[in-house]
Amino acid sequence: MTEIKESMELGYYFMTLEDKYWGLFLIALIVVFFLLGREKGFWAGYGIASYAFLLCPVTVFFFIKAFPTLQTYYPIRWLCQISLFICLAMTLVMEKVRKEQDKWHFIGAAGILVLMLFLAGTPVFMGENQVFAEKSGVPAEYEETYNIILSDMEERGIKKAYIWGPKEWMADARVYSGDFYPIYGKDMWDSQVGNGLNSSYSDSLRTLYEFYTMYETVDGALDNKWQQVEVLADTLNATGDVTCDYVVMYRGTGHWKERGKKVEKLSNVDVEGTFLSRNFEKVGMTENYYLFYKQAGE
Amino acid sequence: MKMNTLLQYGLAFFWMCIIPLLTGGIFTKVLAKNRRFLLVSAISCGLVLNYAVYQVVAMVFVLTDGSFRLLTWIYAGISVTMAVVGVFFFKKQKMIVENKVTESSYRWYKDPFFIMGAVLVVTQVVIILVMATPDKDDAFYTGLSSMCIANDYVLKYSAYDGAMQMPIETRYIMAALPVYQASLSLLCKGLHTLIICHNLYPLFYMPLAYGIYCMLGEKFLEKKEDLGKFLLFFAFLHMFGNYYVFSPENFLITRIWQGKALFVTVGLPFVWYYVNRAWDEENIKKALPYWGLVALGLIASAFMGETGLYLNFIVVAVAALANLIVKKRWKNCIMAAVSLLPEIILMALFL
User: Fold this and answer.
1) Of A69, A90, A180, the CB nearest to B162
2) Which of B279, B294, B288 is nearest to B328 (CA)?
3) What's the domain range around A200?
């Protein structure tokens, strides 16, 4: 029973998520049914099937049972072609308003478009990750760091480099070049595993992941960031079973400041000195990052 | 712009547009009944056939642990052969020289609503070209492409982990789209997969997606003159569909290069359209080419991801049930079942 209730709650969650589209879709189906002269049986069947099967919270339970590997339910809503039928209905309404092309067509169209603007929701161009880019989505500073490492690799004759750094930076590194090997995945978190970290990784890698996460985290104790920097360098040297060629560390306080955190004391952390004293070689730096090469034999 | 860059973009246009267009000629019987949308139909049919072929060939390479480069060259050979066959069919039907629109007097270029809709679509494409709209999944999907190129294998390890400790999940192995995008990179003289995904996919395939939706819209509209209004509304509504990060509107406009997005914007409407066309035909022989396209569309959906594999199966199955009740064309139901067979085999491999 609990399982069914949870599934229904999930279905209801998606209903609320789609917000006004639900109402618009229902209105559209009614409009299409009455205004489209033909195939009324098909439209009635389509509407009933959409609401009774595809969009009904109760069916979420059966869908998850039938397709457990899909993990989420929302894709089944795509089958309804909600936008298509909303626009079909609007076109039919426009046709009824005016038979001939005249100024009323334009005024009517403009009115409906404005109404849609208010009803439909947020513009897609205002999404969370959408920014003006210089080149294909990889932040310019990341690109700068990758190029520094790639040219350093060329000088040293390294074909493939194992890298360790901020999560997002590592993720983009994989996209930028197949010659970068992050020492662990962008995210080791696995909700299916008891302790939360994917068990396929070695203990050393999980330790390195946890330490860097702690270092990156915004809500962590900022006063001890200098200690964390030392721990990062020491741990990497101590874990002999992990191959790592390059390490990227935050240079300034921008990362934390961007997230609205006070980080005055962080400016006292000597990242460069800490790493250089532990047999790392500095290969370059950008506005926000230090890039170190881990020398062999340590 | 350097000569090499120009050559790369020229090759990209060839492999992403010209080859599908010419391959579409294989389906001249279908195209002949849809002359208003000749270009959209030809490219979409050709693209779906290319995707289906790539999916099947890639599966062989995945199962035999084959080389990515060999896969690419084999696909290139098959693809060019299909395009040549397509040209032969085009010539045989004289479709290029006799592309007359005889069904009605409607001309899109004289319809102000259509022009406004088209301007909106162009605006969306331009915005995508100057903005970066990928989500975090890109690190995985385009990462897979980079790894195929760098390591000459076909989908083996998780792109999140370059150290190759994590075998990739089966559901990702079976969907060949990231490998196909890597192949495009190879065929375009090393044009980066990021540029292919983030720039060329929206540039070429966003208008195609709108075209397929227009075909669907026209199918349901009683007056063909209303197509312009439909396009205008559709393009406009899509710009305000950010109610959810996985909404079809969000997918179409922000990241059409990803599997789920390509499925929901191209694969799904394609199968929707041809399932409808097939059901309209009372004569089973006339419906055959449509069912063939449905079968190809289903394999192409699997190429786009596991979601596509399941969902288009549901589309065909539900449509069969609904039409059996409403139209009582049981022969079409048998055809629907036959068109699902390749999909069922793929499902068995996925599971």
Assistant:
1) A180
2) B279
3) 140-294
